Amino acid sequence: MCYHHRPTGDPSLPTPAEMSEDRKGFTVKDRRHFTADGEVRSERADEARAVPAAAVVEPSPEPPRPTPKPVGHSVAFSDLLVQLAGNASVLLGLAGPEGESPPVDLEGAREVIGILEMLRDKTEARRTPEEEKLLDGILYELRLSYVARTRVSGA
Asked: Is the backbone of residue 114 left (phi > 0), alpha (psi -120 to 50) or beta?
């Protein structure tokens, strides 16, 4: 159905012009405090001046909140490395519940080792000496275990 003109034979349907006059759904009011040039809008300035001083309520003083202790970048990164190494160890069958031999997933272990290698490449020259030593040690041990497992399974 075309809305550009009144269909012939049905004079009860409104034209687009009549529809827009009947419906005024909403109006848009710019409520930003500043203009595009960074100056205070005149409406806002007038509103700010129009508020009586008695109407302004001062916020009650809150007790000082303890500032959260910032977590060092090296701690979080080291934790991530250790967690990924643990995941790879489980996938290689090196760690698991006591008394049980966990299933080996060489494909999954290779992916986790690949993630650790990617992290090594992406964080080059931004790691602390401790992080460097930890990451190198983790990758060395996981690669050795991966090669040993692939030789045993013949993959």
From this structure: alpha
